[in-house]
Amino acid sequence: MPSELHILGIRHHGPGSARLLTRALRAIEPDAVLIEGPPDAAELISLAGHADMVPPVALLVYDPEVPSNASYYPFADFSPEWQAMRWGLEHKADVRFIDLPQSLRPPSTKKADSEADRECESGGNDECEATEPDVPPAERHRQDPLDALAHAAGFADGEAWWGRLIEERRGDENPLQVFDAIREAMSSARAECGSTPHEPHELAREAHMRKSIRAAIKDGFTRIAVVCGAWHAPVLTADVLKSSPAKADDAILKQLVKRKTTATWIPWTYDRLSLQSGYGAGIASPGWYEHLWMNHDQVSTRWLTKVARFMREEDLDASPASVIEAVRLADSLAALRGRSIAGLDELSEATLSILCHGNPLPMRVIERKLIVGNRLGHIPEHAPSVPLQRDLAAQQKSLRLKVSADDAELDLDLRKETDVARSRLLHRLSVLGIPWGTLAADQKQRASTFHEVWKLQWKPEFAVVVIEAARWGNTIVDAAAACVQDQASKAQELAQLTALLDHVMLADLPGAIDTLISRIQSLSAVAATIGSLMDALPPLVRILRYGNVRKTDAALVEPLVDGLLARICAGLVPACGSLDDDAAAEMHSRIDGVSSALSTLARSEFVEPWHHELHKLGSAGVHGLVAGRAWRILLDAQACDPEVAASRIAFALSPGNDAAQASAWVEGFLRGSGTVLLHDERLLAIVDRWVCSLPPETFEQVCPIARRTFSTFAKPERRTIGEHLRRGVRAAQPSAGVIDGDDDDLARCELVDPVLRLILGEQMP
Amino acid sequence: MSKPSSNSSQTASSAMRETAEKQYAAELAALARLDDRERPPRWNLSPWAVVTYLMGGKLKDGTEISPKYVGNKRIIEIAVATLATDRALLLLGVPGTAKSWVSEHLAAAISGDSTLMVQGTAGTPEEAIRYGWNYALLLAKGPTRDALVPGPVMRGMAEGKIVRVEELTRVPSEVQDTLITILSEKTMPIPELNEETRATKGFNIIASANDRDRGVNELSSALKRRFNTVVLPVPDSMDDEVKIVHQRVGQMGKALELPGEIPALDEIRRVVTIFRELRDGKSVDGKSKLKSPSGSMSTAEAISVMTNGMALASHFGDGKVKAADVASGIIGAIVKDPVQDKVVMQEYLETVVKEREGWKDLYRACREVL
Fold first, then answer.
1. Residue at A756 is within a domain
2. Is the complex ipTM higher than 0.95?
């Protein structure tokens, strides 16, 4: 008895296709269901029927040697292939995958295979698409055969046309006739596009599908249903099987080199199913498709009700009356555009206009939560392991890190290659949320900077975390980078980001640095306060200065420091405008932080504008603490004339000023170290005169502050200042630091000078 | 925006500006003649033809319809579909996004009459929206229908026409709420006469409002629910915006009889770039994020900066618009809040303008003014 062959051309992840397909399967009742899927995963098909298997899930086919060389085959509940698999397993039909096995495809070389059809290449490639904006997404659909048909039908693009005709269709015509029509449409589209294959392995793939169909016929199945992408339908028919000899197909397949692959099921998310995630055959709106799949009638009413209920959950106003109006608007928009029922476009526009009152913000939430959706799939526990797990195991082995449940201490010497690699692995794992190692708390007590002490303890639940982390990538380094990028895009605080940058430096994730830096840049532009910018600067400068110790490229940080500093300089003076005592104290320490960070760099392009700004700050009428500090920093850096500084101090301490302000000024100027008073006796004289001139009651007020200031000086400093004062300040003495004595002394000093320079290092100023 | 079409009837009238239905009478007539689609009650055109009138196109008989709105067709479709469902339409947007322009043309196309209009101001009284009285008659005869002076809304209700309410958010809140009964019950009670005016089919309201400026009265949520809101965005692309500014500056220069030549496209492009960057909060190359000033940075303001620069150049300069002529206008448009906006502008100058190739003159000119 000749086999009955039905070719069912579908659109991947199309709910209308899925519905049509289940009806067709019911009508055909096939004993063999052949699905366009990877035969590498043949033995995993039975798991699809498992009770614990909840879509969205994906078949992952990867090279066990190079796990990052992997392909995903995602399935949602509304994917026709998924429904075909389930139907076949339920009805005890033989379910087979007939696509060209991954084992016969050459390993992917990054860009070359942005396959339009259905595979989404693994994590590595995603990254690549995210960072290379020069490949427009439209290019993937450049040769979309649907577009040609859609244009003929007057639609803007193939997606809209197919959606309208097939996915949102509610009719109950004979499904087999619809599939015949699809096949006819496709064969004319194929004729239109010419004979050039529209993706790399197309000829081989179709040859393999034909070969598998022939095999199924040979195996004696009587009613065979072939579920494949609509594009392939015309070349798999019985006529083609008859007319094109099996030999030719075998010849094509013979040329291919076989390699080893492993397959597994992994949980998937709607987010990764959507186009935005860089998945070639992705769909724009998984959540909407799920809605279409779950609901057979009153689609728009149900959808808008769902939207309204969601908005209420989010504490937004959405009355049933508004839902009624939204349905009416969506319907009349559809009528205006000549469509029979409202599609997602019309519904979204009605939602925006009526439920959101034109405000795009709630709309964005709706888009993310409802239209795309955040569903996460689940796979049975005994499914095979994921590449990330293998990568981790391989690294543990090569770095000789023992996995044990005991608490073990690990002292790493960062001067050694292996230990640096270990440290990186542990840092990367902690980025991924796998706290296998924790940095010991007593870290700081060890004197050397090249030691890192970890506590290692493996817990069984980490295995789950590893599988969860597998969605970030297939190797630890890829996954950690992707995870950091995600965290960076979500972080709203500058401090969070700079902390993350520290992490990235430690974990050595060069791929993530770019994203992180651009995020820091954009956040620093909108950061509300100068304070947060000033807090962010010192760690960045540290990386710039010391980053190379860990052999990471710190040059990337330079433009960031540059931009941050420009913003700080522009906003410093206004930010210090009206500070109370507490705020001034905070600003004081921030200015100190920025100054000392910049002075470690000692680069004039950074230091000069900063000093310029401090000059302005010192002269503006700001809180004494801040103004005093500004002059002190300038004086220390020799960025201002000591004469000017002296006159500023005299001005600040002149009797016309409020005593509290003056004492704040002194505190700002002197806090930390009194050396400056020792070097320039003029200053000491001015301060001395000021203290002496205070009337008794004011002195009592100022005394505690002055005490607080002077108590920060080192003991010998205080003693010397006291001695100077006892001797009596010689106010007339010209300048400090100049040795005064006869010429003989000077000549002797000059003898010592070269040796001293040598000892101190010649580059010292 | 609109191109003044040659075939529109420019009769020798001394009016500074003709109404839309007169200016584009020929286009409207052609559309009405060829329009064979279903029209809602008392609409002069079908919804489809109204969209064509706004967006421009070529009719079957070859009549060229000039585009009145440069931008996304979907927005106009939503607006027209809203009016067809007898829901009131609220056009929302920053100044210079053609709200009044769109509402005038919608009214002209749908009702053939764009003159039923209430201008919202802080002093708009309730009578302006409802009705007033002829006091001489009121005193002589008491409250009668004769003594009643209907406002634009009342007339629109009686005749089944579109009524425009401009700048709804400038109207005091209690007066705004007068619209609630009209919109939900489609009736206007006249308690003095114990009567009411019921709306005829075809009546509807297009309100325009501004949600960004200062000194606006936020709509009550009861009123908001009765409107479908359509947000008119600022021009999509740089080129569109440059085109709009260039055209309008040319027209205004003529109207104000400024002797200077229309500024070079490059100068316009620079001003538009600055406005776009600060409005969007990022540089055009998308590489750096910027703070936005407190003002709305609308296209309308960009136009006024350019005309201002033109006046400066023609009266005090050599007639050619240079960086120095626009700098003060730019600073004036951006620095609305002397403290915050100044920081924004300074940051912008230092991080973007200073670095940009060929913008040195503008940088210097702005630094001088700031």
1. no
2. no
